[in-house]
Amino acid sequence: MALASPPIIIAIGGQGSRIGGDKAERLLGGERLIDHMLRWARGQSDLIALAVRASCADADMGTGLPTVADAAANLGPISALDSAMRFASQHGRNHVLLVSCDMPFLPDDLLARLSHVIGEAGAALPDVAGRVQPLAALWRVDCAALHTYIAGGGQSLWRYAEQQGMERLPGRAADFANINTPEELAAAEQRFKRGAR
Question: What's the pLDDT band for 24 if we cut at 50, 70, 90?
Fold first, then answer.
């Protein structure tokens, strides 16, 4: 059953220390990583926002998108999921797609396929050779359950997904390649030059 337009939240709150900082600003094919992700997201949903660190609450990176700041510092990606759920709840949406800013090769039908498999589960995660991808996943909005998990010391996205019940969507490693280092950025640049997606 198709879901009603889940919003897409692009997480840009990571430090990006392995790539020298400002990961979302890194250029790939002459465009910033955030611009690649924004173009992809606009083809999927009518509602998009950026999940940012609390110290960067007003930093939309020139995108014009709304931002949702971490409610608590130093929790890692679980903070982005909290931001995503709060944003979706405020807009009356029951599901939200959370993606990282550094995954420029996501398939165009990702949201549709995740929506198809999630059913009554708490999350639908791509699975690449047995490894799930929580930063390219569809989540059922349940702010209370997530807050309880975080309050109990939980920080792992996949453990939260497991706790809430998750469906897995088989995926290709190439689709979920992310960019954390200069070497991975160089490899992605070569892939763009070849026209490979």
Answer: confident
> What is the amino acid identity at position 116?
H
Q: Is the sign of the CA dihedral 62, 155, 91, 37 positive or negative?
A: positive
CB atoms within 10 A of CB 87: 22
Distance CA 9, CA 98 (A): 5
158 burial type by CB count under 10 A (0-12 exposed, 13-18 middle, 19+ buried): middle
The Cα–Cα gap between 19 and 187 comes to 13
**Residue in 152, 159, 161, 14 with CA at minimum distance from that of residue 74:** 14
- The 10s digit of each residue's pLDDT in 75-87 is 889 999 999 999 9
Q: Rounded distance, CA 197 to CA 195, Å?
A: 7
| Closest to 33 (Cα-Cα) out of 46, 14, 47 | 14
* 8-193 classified as CATH 3.30.1380.10: no
